[in-house]
Amino acid sequence: MGIAGRVGLLIVDFVNGFADPAAFGGGNIPQAIARTTTLLAAARRLGWKIAHTRIVFADDGADANIFSLKVPTMLGLTEGNPASAIVPELAPAPGEYVVRKTVPSAFSGTPLAAWYVAHGVQTVVVAGCVTSGCVRASVLDAMQAGFRPIVVSDCVGDRAIGPHEANLFDMAQKCGDVLELDTLLSRIPNQ
């Protein structure tokens, strides 16, 4: 699909709980977070519109849904819980949009698509976790909303490598481009 128009960056759920193997994390998530620091620095330098997501449920669970029914521990990811906070090395800078969500997709039930459109974004570069869950759901919805998704394969992670690789393969076949960070950066024109 390639890169067209203004580029936006979407960093999906790189929060403390998903960085911690004892909570929701494991697999190659720590390596993906480390690699995403380079991607985020480049995006800031290039002036991309940057959005971060967090799963945030109400303190009293009033917004519990089918996702939290399947994974009840998600209800613990509340605004004040450190597990729901974005990892320090990827902390949002002023002007970067933080999307709070209660389902896997960054776009479902949020104003993210409208925010990208308002800023002229046509290509959405995606990093985050987990590849087989929230990343995949966000990439699919980005494509369905008319954006060109690019998944940065070494900036996404999953609890297990099998689902990670299978979902990268499938996303490359159906809904976006899948590129390593160095390849992506070699193709980005200065904006």
What is the SS-derived class? alpha/beta
The strand order across the widest sheet is 3-2-1-4-5-6
Strand content: 15-25%
Determine the fraction of residues in helical runs and give it as a percent range. 25-40%
How many E-type strands?
6
Q: N- to C-terminal separation?
A: 19 Å
Overall average pLDDT: 96
| Largest sheet report | 6 strands, parallel
* Order of SSEs: EHHEHEHEHEHEH
Gyration radius, rounded: 15 Å
Spans of 5+ residues with little confidence (pLDDT < 50)? Answer: none
Characterize the overall form. globular
Note the total helix count. Answer: 7
Structure description:
By secondary structure, the protein is an alpha/beta fold. The chain has helices at residues 16-19, 29-46, 66-70, 112-118, 131-144, 161-174, 181-187; strands at residues 6-12, 49-55, 97-101, 121-129, 148-157, 177-179. It has a 6-stranded parallel beta sheet. The protein is globular, with a radius of gyration of 15 Å. It starts with 5 loop residues before the first strand and ends with a helix. The model has no long low-confidence stretch (mean pLDDT 96).
